[in-house]
Amino acid sequence: MRAPALTARSYIGSSPLPTLERLNFKPMNAPREPMGGGLPLGSLRFADYTEPMSDSKRTAFCAALGRGLPSEILILDDEGLRPYECDGLTGYRQMPVAVALPRNESEAQAVLEICRSHEVPVVARGAGTGLSGGATPHRGGLVLSLARFNRIVSIDPLARIARVQPGVRNLAISEAAAVHGLYYAPDPSSQIACSIGGNVAENSGGVHCLKYGLTVHNVLRIRGLTIDGEVIEVGSEALDSQGLDLLGLLIGSEGMLAITTEVSVRLIPKPQQARVILASFDDVEKAGQAVADLLAAGIIPAGLEMMDGPMTAAVEEFVHAGYDLNAQAILLCESDGTPTEVAEEIAHMREVLSKSGATSLRISDSEAERLRFWSGRKNAFPASGRVSPDYYCIDGTIPRKRLGEMLRRIAGLEKKYGLRCLNVFHAGDGNLHPLILFDASRPGEFERTEEFGAEILEICVEMGGTVTGEHGVGIEKINTMCVQFSPQERMSFFAIKRAFDPEGLLNPGKAIPTLSRCAEYGREHVHRGALRFPELSRF
Amino acid sequence: MAEQVGQAEQTEQAERAEQWLIATRECLAQARLERQAIRIEGHGSKAFYGNPVSADRVLSTLGYAGVVDYDPTELVVVVRAGTPIRVLESLLESRGQRLAFEPPRFGSGGGTVGGMIASGLSGPARWMSGACRDFVLGMTVMNSQGDLLRYGGTVMKNVAGYDLARLHTGALGSLGIVLDVALKVLPLPAARLSLEWSCSEDAARETLNEWAARPLPLSASAWIPNQLGGFDGTLRLRLSGARAAVDEAANALSQSPQGRLGLARPLKNNEADAFWLSIRDQTHSVFQSSLPLWRVSLPARAEGHADFSPMLVEWGGGLRWIATNHSAQAVRAFAADRSGHAALYRPGQGQVLPSDGVFMPLEPVIHRLHQRIREELDPMGLLNPGRLSPAMARAA
After folding, report:
1. Nearest residue of B to residue A428 by CA position?
2. Does the distance separating the beta carbons of A233 and B363 come in below 8 Å?
3. A157, A225: one domain
4. How far is B82 from chain A (nearest CA, A)?
5. Has residue A54 been placed in a domain?
6. Whole-model pTM?
7. Rounded to an integer, what distance in angstroms lies between the CA atom of residue B292 and that of residue A87?
8. How confident is the model at residue B278 (pLDDT cuts 50, 70, 90)?
9. Within chain B, what is the greatest distance between any pair of CA atoms?
10. Residues 6+ apart with CB under 8 A from B395
């Protein structure tokens, strides 16, 4: 018996997301710590998780699982394990030794106990929609699926707090709170499928973050298990708690510090109304400037998204949202609040956007029209899947003022790598999602795509940004972490890891690259300027 | 001209900052050699907060000051730890922006950015706008080894690596020396308006929680009893935001009696501003009590208790200030029974501090994690030892 694994595919219709899965992926046999050069990027990414389990250890471990756990929460056969071989980063797959689907905290403790005593790595998994490989299995490890922790424990409408188990879907929280006029604000594009536990692990964002914050701003309390099986509670349903901010530390820690078993989230009142402006620009730099102008005018839009011309063309053909096909860039700028508040803000936004050189402005007049304007943006990924056999979604953040410059440099990279790139941005946050189009059936094209993506991320760091805005590091960006963080900074991350998990059994090898991995990757941590303290000048 | 002067000052501050880093590294090297504890200090305006530190050396951050980078269109400011909060805020205000969590400013200096981050304290706006930790985007830190470490960045979204910038926020300097801080800033609200009602604490708390579940531009609340321990008091409510939203809400809340609250009185803006300032900076007379003052943070709807009647309730019931001679054990039990926590915020005159510290003891597993984190990040226990907890004083 097994729970169906929700993959990223299931929520965007027929088009796979991401589409790396047609990749001609070869089984990995890379050494644990690669020595010498010559390993392709893909193999290097996998280097830390490929240590297989010896046959004798496997036999003993599986026997212990069988003895210690009810059979209905255990998967050991190849067919049953197959759905767990990857998460949303489908280009990287490998089979775990076992999958456990505990139904409660004490079963989860039992799983951890067995793993600990056999020194077997544990990879926690929510809905498996993550795009960075945070839930990619360990070849010698167990996948701990929290899919059966799927209960909304309570909703207190007056306290505006929902207590939920980690396997509850993001959108299900808002659906359950809707009757009280409340909702849970962070809305990653996978919200119909992704779980709140996964959101906690990745500190997920969405399109309304500038005004309403990320997961870390909307989660009040986490109950979880340490690798030792001890119950911890961090944060609280009061507005603060004492001691160190372990809540902030656990959020975004990619399942490497603890296993989440319950989450208290903050609910907020649903705005009475939302309206969106669809603005066209004949130049991407002007659109970038318009974003700065809106913020300079003291406006914090509820959502502020940008698409370049090629992306607009691709989605228009797919969903017929009524986008301006002559525009070099379009902006979606949303206001929410009471009807008079929205009317006032929309008028202000309209004035700023006109001054910034928008060639046309359309304002949604109804909820149906608002949703139609958004439909293009929301379908940017599947639309890309229609114009290309495969695409690779990049996730980096830069200071907003450099959006235009970034687009120019991406255009340069398109020539360098001979690949096309469509661009969607969470412009309000400076968070980029360039979609590189490629055909995995052509030899070498995926490798070129990865190089292209890595170079975009390195430019993000150079511009003072980050290699991941909201998708997480996982295994996908582990190498580019070498560019963003110095050896001392990475050592301090390992220090935190040791404080929670001295044996390194929780999701080992993810998120933080070792020194030797960075040496292998061969790209230097970006130092800027020739100051005495180059570390400081990077801010 | 003014900008040229500004630039010259910036350059001078940057040079001083660099000298300060060199000196601080030397100070740390010496301290490691002689196993000397260091107390980190800015203005010293929050020296009363937390547990006492017995230190051999004092490290002043005042030499590490100045705004490093500020671009209002990015909604981000990068500022050095020794910068006075007031200097930072007046710069932001000149560009129509602010620190949305309203950090308190104590004493004549008003406190520094470093102290603001290390204490993590937030003012009245924390109720709806978020706390200090919610606005920290990135940080550079010097650890006790003298390494310069940078976490987070100057961008709104950043999930690369563990969120150590947030971990250092509120850590009372026990994990490292906070150097540069990148903060998210927000526009000043276009409009503000305050209302007041005469009511009991229960009525105030219940009504505020009902309102908080509605889309209203609430931004601060304060209930104060007419006399200490009394049942009747005054609730003040601040609305902030877009003009239309504030006017609409003010009309809706003041034109008819609001359930148990009765009819509202609008406050003049200058009177209201002075009041909120006195709550934020704790200059209001309710803070002048000679009794031990407890800061009690509770789930907003938690019921009160006659033995622990507050002299001020903020954050819609979430923050209760209680001046009492009751034992630490009794106040902590009151908070713990309600899933909250209590800190002895300002001890009374000559009060002997609880032997386990001014903060409530942590759960054993959480305490062990605190110790391990500190041992990993400051293995010799040199930085502000004991400030967070007497049990986390010097390392062996």
Report:
1. B156
2. yes
3. yes
4. 15
5. yes
6. 0.92
7. 54
8. very high
9. 70
10. B375, B378, B379, B380, B381, B385
Q: How many CB atoms lie within 10 A of CB B283?
A: 14
Q: Which residue of B has its CA nearest to A253?
A: B162
Can you give the residue range of the structural domain that contains A189? 152-269
Encode B123-159: b = buried (16+ Cβ within 10 Å), e = exposed: bbbbbbbbbbbbbbbbbbbbbbbbbbbbbbbbbbbbb
d(CA B271, nearest CA chain A) in Å? 26
Best of B127, B159, B356 to mutate (most A CBs within 10 Å, chain A): B159
Which of A128, A145, A162 terminates a domain? The answer is: A145
The C-alpha atoms of residue A199 and residue A214 are separated, in whole angstroms, by 9
Q: Which residues contact A137 (CB under 8 A, 6 or more apart)?
A: A49, A84, A85, A86, A94, A95, A96, A123, A143
| Whether pLDDT at B148 is above 60 | yes
Let me know if residue A265 belongs to a domain: yes
Find, in chain A, the residue whose alpha carbon is nearest to that of B207.
Answer: A158
Q: Which of A438, A339, A423, A444 lies closest to A391 in space, CA to CA? A: A438
Same structural domain, A130 and A159: no
State which of A330, A361, A382 marks the end of a domain.
Answer: A382
Is residue B318 predicted with pLDDT exceeding 50?
Answer: yes
What pLDDT shows up at residue A524? 63
CATH code of the domain covering residue A78: 3.30.43.10
3-state secondary structure A464-509: CCECCCCCCCCCCCCCCHHHHCCHHHHHHHHHHHHHHCCCCCECCC
Question: What does each C-alpha distance from A410 to A52, A305, A396, A454, A504 come to in angstroms?
Answer: 39, 18, 13, 12, 38
Domain count, chain A: 3
d(CA A144, CA A163): 21
Residue A502 in any domain: the answer is: no
Residues A30 and A139 in one domain: yes
pLDDT at residue A168 is higher than 80: yes
User: What pLDDT score does A271 carry?
Assistant: 94
The one-character DSSP state at B156 is: S
Percent of chain B residues topping a pLDDT of 70: 98
Say yes or no: A184 and A290 in one domain. Answer: no
Task: Give residue A207's pLDDT.
Answer: 87
pLDDT score, position A7: 28
Together in a domain, A47 and A120: yes
What CATH number does residue A286 fall under? Answer: 3.30.70.2190
Is A337 within the bounds of a domain? Answer: yes
Render pLDDT for A398-438 as a digit per residue (tens, 0 to 9): 998 888 889 999 999 999 999 999 999 999 889 999 999 99
Q: Do A244 and B388 touch (CB under 8 A)?
A: yes
Q: Kindly report, residue by residue over A84-134, the tens digit of the pLDDT.
A: 999 988 888 899 999 999 999 999 999 999 999 999 999 999 999 999 999
Q: What letter does residue A336 receive in the DSSP assignment?
A: E
Q: Which of B73, B130, B212 lies closest to A295 in CB terms?
A: B73
Distance CA A138, CA A49 (A): 5
Confidence check: pLDDT of A274 > 90: yes
The single-letter DSSP state of residue B362 is P
Distance from CA of A333 to the nearest CA of B (A): 16
Residue A482 scores a pLDDT above 50? yes
Block residue for tokens 């209302």? B195
Q: What is the CATH number of the domain that holds A224?
A: 3.30.465.10
How high is the pLDDT of residue A32? 24
Largest CA distance in chain A: 72
Nearest CB among B22, B166, B186 relative to A249 is that of B166
Report chain A residues whose CB lies below 8 A from the CB of B163.
203, 216, 248-249, 251-253
Q: Choose between A206 and B295: higher pLDDT.
A: B295
**Which alpha helices (DSSP H) does B242-361 contain, by range?**
243-254, 269-280, 328-337
Contact flag A397-B156 (C-beta cutoff 8 Å): yes
Judge whether A87 and A6 are in contact, CB under 8 Å.
no
Q: Is the per-residue pLDDT at B189 higher than 90?
A: yes
* Residue B289, CB-side half-sphere exposure with 13 Å CA sphere: 21
